[in-house]
From TrEMBL:
Pfam families: DndB. This is DNA sulfur modification protein DndB. It comes from Streptomyces curacoi.
Length: 379
């Protein structure tokens, strides 16, 4: 295998003896950078059988793609299995180390570009983009073989050697930009927490008109108080482990944030234009994502004990005494690092600890460990 990889590294296509058997795909022929490529559809049942990963035991310079992250696979497979009627997977991109023969339908125009692509069964199919989708499909098929008759788009390129395959991987990922988390929440109609966050932006006086729906960071001049992603994670922490239906969870989240609003006067001052959103972000930390997340986690501890509004409102009342000003030296190292609000897991935990202490709540063992490290100066 390493000998073959060495040949690919030198840019040579490794010859293969034909078995006389071949795959036939309906395809459309195209041209990019003077090279022909072919777009086709492939049944899912064939994906694990014909599309291979690059050699896992080779060093990075002799591979044409990243090492498979197996931790991602269960979630991807579950996405297919849980959404059999509306899952969406984008096309795989593969290089074919073998002869590809395209037989067009003849004629002119579109007919000349459509036809059948014949590839020997002993050809080697190397995925340039989509190895995690391929592995997730394999996992999903084991649980639901009926998915095998469904199809996924595949784009075939001729394998021109390792250097070309590596360049294809680099080019395919060079300009890939993960969308902002906020717009992902805005457009996600499956995730219950996303639905709750959107409902609050529409119906809660605390958030209506003051949430940035697309971006996950607020510009210095933004008039918004929160980002949708910050509200999402705050709700996620707030409702974690509570056995509530969708309506109950939405009502509880709305009730909590409106109760918190009464304890955080600066929020209302922004809505009444006594204070600008820019001034609040500059001078306070409680419109930042770390504060919403920490408030949600602390309140979740109380809500696990009681969802009685009268009882939990009384338990969170001491939040009115918290000094949220950036000038408060207590925040340095907890929520603020080097003059900037930090959203790291450790800083969220330290902020949670600070609020727990104000509310007289005990720390979990992990929170105590982080707190001890902070007090020793190790954090």
């Amino acid at each position: 295998m390493k000998t073959e990889a060495a040949s690919r590294a030198a840019g040579r296509v490794v010859p293969r003896a034909s078995t006389g058997f071949e795959y036939t795909f309906p395809a459309i022929r195209g041209v990019q950078a003077g090279r022909e490529f072919y777009a086709s559809m492939c049944p899912l049942r064939l994906i694990p059988k014909i599309f291979l990963f690059d050699e896992d035991d080779l060093s990075a310079e002799l591979r044409a793609q990243r090492v498979l992250n197996k931790g991602r696979l269960p979630a991807l497979a579950r996405y297919i299995l849980d959404n059999p009627d509306d899952y969406v997977f984008s096309a795989l991109t593969a290089s074919v180390d073998g002869d590809m023969i395209f037989e067009s339908q003849g004629g002119e125009g579109v007919a000349h570009r459509t036809g059948q692509l014949r590839i020997p069964m002993d050809a080697r199919f190397l995925i340039n983009d989509g190895q995690h989708r391929r592995a997730a499909i394999e996992l999903a098929l084991k649980e639901n073989p009926d998915l095998g008759d469904e199809t996924i788009a595949v784009v075939f390129f001729c394998d021109a050697g390792l250097a070309r395959s590596q360049q294809m991987f680099a080019d395919l990922n060079r300009h890939a930009v993960r969308p902002a988390r906020s717009i992902g929440v805005l457009y996600d109609h499956r995730d219950p927490n996303a639905q709750i966050a959107r409902a609050l932006t529409e119906h809660s006086a605390v958030f209506k008109g003051f949430v940035e729906m697309e971006k996950s960071t607020l510009s210095a001049r933004s008039r918004k108080m929160f980002t949708l992603s910050a509200l999402y994670y705050g709700n996620q922490a707030l409702l974690q482990g509570l056995e509530l239906n969708q309506d109950e969870a939405t009502s509880l989240a709305r009730a909590f944030w409106e109760a918190a609003d009464r304890l955080l006067p600066e929020w209302e001052q922004v809505r009444s234009r006594q204070l600008s959103a820019q001034e609040m972000r500059r001078d306070f930390i409680h419109s930042h994502g770390i504060a919403l997340h920490a408030l949600g986690r602390v309140a979740n501890t109380i809500l696990r004990e009681t969802t009685s509004a009268a009882k939990w409102n009384k338990r969170i009342a001491p939040l009115k005494d918290v000094n949220w000003s950036r000038a408060n030296a207590d925040w340095e190292g907890r929520a603020i690092v080097g003059g900037r609000v930090s959203k790291s897991h450790q800083n969220v935990t330290l902020t949670v600890n600070y609020l727990r202490q104000h509310l007289g709540l005990p720390l979990s063992p992990e929170e105590q460990r982080v707190e001890d490290a902070y007090l020793r100066g190790d954090a």
